[in-house]
């Protein structure tokens, strides 16, 4: 203890229990905020990957159309993709980044196709369902469809 002008001052080293509790509380709040933000970022990243996968497939379908004059045909995703990759050898069949399952493939005919992601984590899609029912407002699905024959009956 040091005396200065009649007042006893203590030179204790360390933190009080209250100071430690405040610091631990602040750290806990920061960790919870970071965890919530990280989860949100993961969801957005998966959605971006889904949209990018389908946009890439759409470009490959359109390249096929430019080469053959029609779209690849087949019943189901496997047969349709096999027709596509027979001509566009660089095509890679993507899978959902979260579930690892195939995307939803609809209308894989010579005149049309429709590919959808199913339900998005962060609803900002262009379709209301996984059957290519496009909506003007934001939907919960993201779909791509044929461009070349869009106006054909």
Main sheet overview: 3 strands, antiparallel
| Overall number of domains | 1
- What's the average pLDDT? 84
Rounded Rg: 28 Å
Strand order of the biggest β-sheet: 3-4-7
Distance between the termini: 95 Å
What is the helix fraction of residues, given as a range? 40-55%
Structural class: alpha+beta
Proportion of residues in extended strands = 15-25%
State the shape: rod-shaped
Number of strands: 7
**What is the number of helical segments per DSSP (H or I, 4+ residues)?**
2
List the uncertain runs.
Answer: none
H and E string: EEHHEEEEE
Protein model, in words:
This protein is α+β, with helices and mostly antiparallel strands. It is built from 2 helices and 7 strands, in the order ββααβββββ. The chain has helices at residues 17-68, 76-87, and strands at 2-4, 7-9, 104-106, 114-116, 125-127, 134-139, 143-145. Strands 3-4-7 form a 3-stranded antiparallel sheet, with helices on one face. The N and C termini lie far apart (95 Å).
Provide keyphrases for this structure.
153 residues, alpha+beta, 7 strands, rod-shaped
Report a brief summary of the structure:
With 153 residues, the chain is α+β, with helices and mostly antiparallel strands. It contains 2 helices and 7 strands, in the order ββααβββββ.
Question: Layout of helices and strands, plus pairs?
Answer:
Elements lengths: L1 E3 L2 E3 L7 H52 L7 H12 L16 E3 L7 E3 L8 E3 L6 E6 L3 E3 L8
Antiparallel strand pairs: 1-2, 3-4, 4-7, 5-6
């Amino acid at each position: 203890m040091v005396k200065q002008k009649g007042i006893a001052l203590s030179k204790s080293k360390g933190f009080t229990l209250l100071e430690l509790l405040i610091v631990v509380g602040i750290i806990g709040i920061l960790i919870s905020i970071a965890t919530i933000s990280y989860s949100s970022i993961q969801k957005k990243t998966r959605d971006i990957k889904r949209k990018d996968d389908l946009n890439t497939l759409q470009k490959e379908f359109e390249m096929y159309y430019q080469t053959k004059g029609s779209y690849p045909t087949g019943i189901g995703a496997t047969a349709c993709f096999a027709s596509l990759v027979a001509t566009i050898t660089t095509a890679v069949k993507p899978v959902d980044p979260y579930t690892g399952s195939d995307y939803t493939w609809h209308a894989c005919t010579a005149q049309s196709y429709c590919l959808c992601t199913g339900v998005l984590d962060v609803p900002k899609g262009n379709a209301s369902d996984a059957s290519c029912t496009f909506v003007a407002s934001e939907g919960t699905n993201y779909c791509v469809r044929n461009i070349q024959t869009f106006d054909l009956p």
